[in-house]
Write a structure and sequence with these properties.
Elements lengths: L10 H6 L4 H28 L4 H18 L7 E2 L5 H32 L3 H4 L4 H18 L1 H5 L10 H10 L6 H20 L5 H19 L8 H4 L16 H33 L5 H14 L9 E2 L1 H9 L6 H16 L9 H16 L1 H7 L4 H16 L2 H23 L1 E5 L2 E3 L13 E3 L4 E7 L4 H14 L5 E8 L5 H16 L3 E5 L3 H9 L2 H5 L4 E2 L2 H16 L1
Parallel strand pairs: 6-7, 7-8, 8-9
Antiparallel strand pairs: 1-2, 3-6, 4-5
Helix pairs in contact: 2-3, 2-14, 2-15, 2-16, 3-13, 3-15, 4-12, 4-13, 6-16, 6-17, 6-18, 9-10, 9-16, 12-13, 12-14, 12-19, 18-19, 20-21
């Protein structure tokens, strides 16, 4: 067990070794600002996900606290994010809050296993078109979920499907409440222009404070009652959350594992992407596996208190960095500030207009859309375009679970095809260009004349299941006239079980046809696998040669034996 968690090194413990008063002052200032910034976002993400506002807030508090204590990044801020809105809403609609709790718990376990198995670096290699595809798809889906509140359509039963949702919107377009629409548009404009005027204070916070005050005055002194607020839809509970007993069985695991896997993959990608961006600014190096374990622990603890999935939040993490935060203490203070706000000022959140939150999420969706990147990728290779468009459409039309699964499978197949295309099989019958094992031609002997009946096959690249059939086809094309086949493997970095099986079948078939197989230039790691697979006994040790010149000498000897 100790060996499994050998890479688990929380940055908090490392940071505290050299901690001082100056660092605390900077972390405290950053933590207070991030805590204030996180409040409207936590409320907006919670409501958009289909839960009450305080659920989003307590998710930010508990999740942010756990990530700060256990995380592998010095400045990561954990909490609910826009990326999870779609999948959380879908799980709640299908399985309820109990199903969401189980899926989040399972996702936490998956994330911890990823960290323990040291998959933190592997996650970073998920193809960029997949990330952009489902991120842009999520952005469009988030935008579509806000139309009802933004326009004040007052539709009580909105379909979950993207196409069906927009059909209902168009059918009710004449019921637009212009006061509500004005609040939504004003919120968007305030966010856009205030961020240009006030660099340190986020536009979403300014918009919520300003627009909430204006709407309160309109309702109190002008008698305008049509603008819906959080208090009109939700009863906000400012008490501390109670612990829930989550009952998990095999049936619930079977039903919710796909959703849990999606949450885990999405959390891993977003958290490590956030950490990577932060490292680029701070100059630190995140321990990816520790960060995954921390995210897993947060997602196991949060559902016990009724929360939604947690991940690293890029916007809040950058706010932390820009305001001087440099250690996980800032993340802890951010969680404490949020807790104090909800305990003592939580009742004021009921006055926030729903259209204002919709405006905040419209900006979030726009920032997530990465439409410029999406547009540039459409000019890339056809395979990347196929992955991008497929992932995007599946995210929008179906759901994120299907999109990630299909996108990953499609990317894997395209990757295998590219690797297969890079591996070349060449055949020499009459003459051979002499080259040393590093690939440089020999000055003394540039070409060798091959004895009659000797063929040389060279595999240039990985020899795995995708290439094994290609190698077999090359053999069939040549026919059975050769007496000796030399297989040159100096450029083969690795082999897999399928390649070994095909090579074994070839050797046995050749022996039946009285054709001798000689292997040349086998690398040590490949030779080790050949020995374990029994090729020394099958071919004979003398027929596994370290260099092509030795293999040709062996071929001459075998020809002489056959002629005699």
């Amino acid at each position: 067990m100790k060996k499994m968690f050998s890479d688990f090194k929380p940055q908090l413990l490392i940071s505290l070794k050299s901690y001082n008063k100056e660092k605390f002052i900077k972390d405290a200032m950053a933590g207070i600002i991030v805590g204030i910034v996180a409040l409207p976002l936590a409320i907006a993400f919670g409501i958009a996900s289909g839960v009450s506002p305080e659920v989003g807030i307590y998710t930010a508090i508990i999740g942010g606290f756990v990530v700060a204590i256990l995380g592998g990044c010095t400045v990561q801020i954990g909490g609910p994010t826009g990326a999870f809105i779609v999948i959380v809403y879908g799980i709640i609609q299908q399985f309820g809050m109990t199903g969401l709790a189980i899926a989040t718990l399972l996702a936490g376990i998956i994330l911890i296993l990823m960290g323990v198995l040291k998959l933190g670096t592997v996650i970073k290699f998920i193809p960029f078109p997949i990330i952009v595809g489902f991120t842009s798809g999520i952005a469009l889906t988030i935008f579509s979920t806000q139309i009802n509140d933004l326009f004040g359509l007052q539709i009580s039963d909105i379909p979950s499907g993207f196409v069906e949702k927009w059909k209902v919107y168009f059918q009710n377009i004449l019921s637009v409440d212009f006061w509500t629409l004005g609040v939504g548009v004003a919120s968007v404009l305030v966010i856009i222009y205030s961020s240009k005027l006030f660099k340190k204070i986020p536009g979403s916070l300014i918009a919520i404070i300003l627009i909430t005050a204006i709407v309160y005055l309109l309702k109190t002194f002008c008698g305008i009652e049509g603008i819906a607020t959080i208090g009109d839809r939700f009863t906000i509970n400012t008490n501390l959350p109670e612990m829930n007993n989550i009952s998990v069985n095999l049936e619930s695991i079977r039903l919710l594992f796909p959703s849990a896997f999606t949450i885990a993959i999405l959390c891993a990608i977003e958290s490590l992407l956030s950490a990577k961006v932060a490292d680029g600014v701070t100059g630190e190096k995140t321990n990816s596996n520790t960060e995954l374990i921390a995210q897993g622990a947060a997602n196991m603890i949060v559902p016990i208190f009724g929360g939604i999935p947690v991940t690293g939040a890029i916007a809040r993490t950058m706010t932390n960095i820009n305001n001087g935060g440099r250690t996980p203490v800032a993340g802890i203070i951010h969680a404490v500030v949020l807790l104090l706000i909800v305990l003592f000022l939580g009742d004021l959140t009921k006055h926030i207009p729903m259209a204002c939150l919709a405006g905040v999420l419209v900006i979030v969706a726009y920032n997530m859309s990465e439409w410029r990147t999406f547009k540039s990728l459409l000019r890339g290779p056809k395979s990347d375009v196929a992955v991008l468009v497929t992932t995007f459409l599946l995210t929008v039309i179906f759901d994120l679970t299907i999109a990630i699964e299909v996108g990953l499978v499609l990317a894997v197949f395209l990757f295998m095809r590219r690797i297969t295309e890079t591996t070349e099989i060449s055949v020499a019958r009459n003459e051979l260009t002499m080259a040393d094992e590093d690939g440089f031609a020999s000055a003394s002997e540039e070409k060798l004349i091959l004895p009659k009946g000797v063929e040389v096959y060279e595999i240039d690249g990985p020899f795995f299941f995708g290439v094994a059939n290609k190698f077999d086809e090359s053999m069939r094309v040549i026919g059975d006239k050769a007496k000796i086949r030399i297989i040159r493997m100096r450029k083969v970095p690795f082999v897999d079980s399928t390649a070994l099986h095909n090579l074994e079948s070839l050797c046995k078939k050749s022996q039946k046809e009285n054709i001798t197989i000689i292997l040349s230039g086998v690398r040590p790691n490949v030779q080790e696998k050949l020995e374990k697979a029994g090729f020394v006994e099958l071919l004979g040790k003398e027929n596994i040669c370290s260099h092509i010149s030795i293999a040709l000498e062996r071929a001459d000897a075998v020809l002489a034996e056959k002629q005699s």
